[in-house]
Each structure stands twice: as C-alpha cells, then as structure tokens.
Please model this.
Amino acid sequence: MSSTPVSESLLSLEGVSRVYGEEVLVHALRDVWLDIRAGEFLSIVGPSGSGKSTMLGLLGVLDLPTSGSIRIQGTEVNTLPDAERSRLRGEAIGFVFQQFHLVPHLTALGNVETALLYRNLSRKERRRRSLEALEKVDLVHRADHRPIQMSGGEQQRTAIARAIVTEPLVVLADEPTGALDTQNASNVMEIFAGLRSPERAVCIVTHDLEVAAATGRRISMLDGEIVSDESQVAVS
Amino acid sequence: MRRFGELIGVAVAGLTARKVRTLLILLGPILGVAAIVAAIGINESSKGDLKAKLRELGTDLIVANAQDAIGGFGADPRIPEEAAARVARLPDVTSVTGTLQLSNIVTLPFAAAEDYYRAFPVPIIATHLNLPTTMDVPLVSGRFLNGFDEASASRVAVIGRDLANEYGYIANEARSIQLGGVNYGVVGVLDYVLLEPSMDSAVFITFANAVEDWDVDDPDPTRLYIRAPTNTRYVAEEIPTVVSLGGPDGANTKVPTDLLDAQSQVDENLNNLTKMMGGLALVVGGVGIANVMSISVIQRSSEIGIRRALGHSRGTIAFQFLIEALVIGVMGGILGAGVGAGVVWMVSEMRDYTMILSVSGLFRWASVSVGVAVVAGLYPSTKAARLEPLETLRLG
Ligand SMILES: Nc1ncnc2c1ncn2[C@@H]1O[C@H](COP(=O)(O)OP(=O)(O)O)[C@@H](O)[C@H]1O
Ligand SMILES: [Mg+2]
Model:
C-alpha cells in the first residue's frame, strides 16, 4: 500500500527544549518536533531571537537539549558520549555559518582539509578530496590563499567547500548570506540549491524571504516554537 | 599513528602562525635550560684541567717525612733502612724510594760561573736507584744511577730537566758539573716530575757518594716516596706506625694529590643552587606558557568552535593544545640545551678550560623542560576543550 515512497528520516528533533541560563532562564526552544528527510531543501525563518540558531545547533548536535531527543537516521545521539557524538557529527553534518569561521592561518585548501582530519586518510587523499570540493564552489584558483586574501563571497564559498568535503547527509547553514552583498548572496544560494540530492538534505536559516521562497519547505519560528511548517512548490 | 602525525601538524601550524608569540613563550624554557646547562657545564669544565692532571699524575703516591716519634723536632730525624724495608713489604705498596737532601753544597756547571750559582743553590738529592720507577718519570736522555754507581761510589750524577736546560746540557754530552768543587760526570737527565717540581732543578747522586764525599754518617733517607695503587689512604695512615714500631723514629705522611683532588671536586652546593635557580626559571617559563596559551585559547575560540562543528571531539581539541605545549617544551629544551652547551664551549675556549659536558645531563634538563611545558599546557587545553562550540560560533 505504498503510493509515494516516504524518504528516509535524516535528522529529527523529538520534543526538544533548550533552556539557557541558571538564575534568569531563557526558554530558547520549547518542545519542538521536527523531521528532516533526505532530498529536502528547507528554510527556517523567523525574527531575531526566535530560536533559529539554537535549533540549528541542536540539529547538528553541537549543543545538547535540556529535554527531548535528537536522532540522526533514527539513532538517538544526544545521550552518546562526546567522542562518539563528535564523530557522528563529522560524518553526517556539514555546517556553514554567517561569519564563515575560517581558520585565519590556514589557506583555503588547509581550511577545507581540516574537515578531513583524524579520519585515517592519507595526506594525498585529503588533498585530492579538498581540491574536488573547492572545484564545486569554483575556487580551485584560490586554494593557496588565506582567508584575509579573499573576498567575503570567496570565504563563504570556501566554508561551503569545507562543509561538503565530507559528503554529509545534511548541510546546516545559519544565515549564510547574512554577511554578503546581493550579488554574492545569490551566488551562494545557487550553490546551496545545487547541493540538493536525493540522499541529502539542505537546511538554511535566513532572514531573507526571497531566499526562503526558493526552498521547498519553509519553517517559521517565533519565541522558540515552530509556528508554521509549509511545503511549497519548489521553485526552479 | 596517522592521527598523532596530524595532531602534530595542526599544533605546529598553530605555533608557526604566531611566530613572535611562539618565540616569546619559547624564551622561558630556553633560558631555564640554558642557564642550568651552562652553569653546571662551566662549573665542571673549570675543574676539567685539574681532573685531567690528576688522571695523569695518579693519586697513589704517598710521601713520608721522617719525624721524631716523640713528636718534638729532633736534630736530624731519619728513616732507618729496616723501617723503609718494612714499608716496602706492606701488601699494597709496589715501590719505595728513599731520598736525603744535602744542603750547603755549591753546584756549578763550570768554575767561572761561581758568583751566579752561589746565590741560587741547587738541591742535591741522594736517592735510591728506583726513583724513576716510583715517581713514574722517564729519563729524557742517558740513564739513571745504577747498582754499579752505588757499589763503586763512582762520581756520577743525574740532573733534573730544568737544570739541564739552564746549564745548556746537550743530550748524551760527556760533561761534568762541580759539586762543592768536586767534579761529577752527568750520566742522564730526568724528565719533569709533576708531583715534586723541586726535583726538576735538582742533582741526583747515590747514597754511597753522599757518605763518601759529603760527610753523611748513615745512608738513611729523610723522606720516602711510596707508590700504593690500592688502598692508598689506608697505607698512608699505616706508614707512621710501620716506620716507628714503638721506637724513637717516626714519620708523617701525605698524599700530594689530595689537595688537587679536593680542588677538582665540583662544588655541590653551588651546583644545587644553580639547579634551583634554573628550575625556578623553568617554572616561571611554565607559568608564562600557561598564561599565554590561555589567552590564545580565547583568541582562537572561533577556530576551536569550528573544529568541534567539523567533528573534532573535546578530547581531540585538548590534545591539540597539549601537543602545542609539548612542541614548545621540546623546542625549548633542545634550543636551551644547545645554547647552554654553546655558552660552556665559549667560556671554555676563552678561559682555556677542558670542556666537560654531560650528554645525559643535556637530555635530562631538556626533558624537564618538556615536562614543565606539558604540565603548563594542561590548564589551557582543558579550557579549550570545555568551550561551548555554539557560543564561540555565535560570537563570530
Ligand atoms: N548562551 C546563551 N545564554 C543565554 N541566552 C541565550 C544564549 N544563546 C541564545 N540565547 C537566547 O536564546 C534565544 C534564541 O536565540 P537564537 O537561537 O540565537 O535566536 P535566533 O538565531 O533566531 O536569532 C534568544 O533570546 C537569545 O538571547
Ligand atoms: Mg541566529
């Protein structure tokens, strides 16, 4: 009785809450349920302080929930020890942030290679895969440049190469165009759109409704809660 | 193993990215190790000449001087033949030579030189025939006094090397010298006697000649030179008893190298003080490492956050910073040991020391630097591991 095959759940939040602070409590996230499936291209929108970054950090198990659970491909990960959780994060998730967060003393290639450290890969293999990732963002010619020698757009593209060099299941981007001019922003969005594949999900936090409109699923947040979760006709 | 190599690569990249800062925190361990290595090395090297000289001399020669057993200064204490023989029979003694110094004899290379040489009297020593053996000194030329000379009391002499130079004596030249107006044939020249430098300008004759020509009643020495390669100290203590045996004759003994030996001992107090000062420098250097690295962890919090996001665990982050500290300790240790050794070499060159540097000491102090650096790195690396990645990334 299966009409449309339900695609695999990659990441899910189950009743996740996150409370910050000890004396003054900030309920950044309240009982959130969310399921991200393979092939999805989704956006998270909402006003500043609504909990978008908090949710993205939890989706990538970069933070732990106050209550509730986080699953990667069905496995609860928030209860695992740090080493195991970190390994799973490195394998399953690719992060992109608004401020690029490139290591300043490393070249573009060195920054991308950082994502492949401690995986028992030869130096040659690391290099080969990293150049391949830089190729995808059209930055091979900048491989030996340091962040300070690159434009904002180029730095963000380097960060994207670093996020995808590990072939992650989910790419999580927190306002990736927030620090870029329109030209670079649309360029970066094009790259994200190109990252979609049947096995992978791409999730972008954004202020920009135009950006959000380009995604297939739009989640709106307010005061730590998901207030709407709409599938829309995918554009382009 | 590959993982460890990658960690070292990351640590080295982190350190070389901040060269000035890295050099500054390296200064602590470098100065600490260099100070200790240099101070101990200079201290030891300053004694190196003495040690080398001691090795050459040997520390087993005993000198026994005749003395009245009662303790007063008798007119002319001697060590009788039988007493010398008893000393020679002691189990550890390999060689005994008795000597008697004659006084007030004017010695001249030739008659016309009288005015000059009267003013500077030359010691005349009556000696047993085995003096070169006991003193362990060869002849530069000719031969020493022998049994035939002794038996026949023939007028032959051996002269010290300085005297030979002064008299312009040519090796194996047939030449005589005048002792109180009596001509003696020179048959040999004795090489320098390091343990008894006065012998270098002396004239040696047989006891037979001393009795025959110079009014000496008994052929008994006033001094014994004794070689005792084993138990030297015990033998030296034993000899006065062996000489006197309750009789009126006595002797006091000394080991001439004792003083040198004491001088050659490195001052342990000074060494310990240096080690403490150097240790203090290392600890201060360690505090510097902990301090600078802690600040660095804050400055690099974004880097730490992104590494966590890329899948590096807390343990890996801690290890990365600990290895930075380790690299600083190793570099500081190696450079410090090198600088210290260089200083020891320079000072030794300048002051003509025989350089003494213990390689195991270099390793020991270098590894102390490594230990200090790693301990100093513990705090910043746990601090780095504890950072909340999401917070550091949020701050940009
Ligand atoms: N470390 C923190 N400690 C205390 N409050 C925090 C912390 N991080 C975020 N918050 C608060 O949690 C709420 C959600 O923040 P955030 O997830 O960054 O929102 P958004 O990304 O949507 O702007 C905000 O009110 C913010 O002030
Ligand atoms: Mg945010």
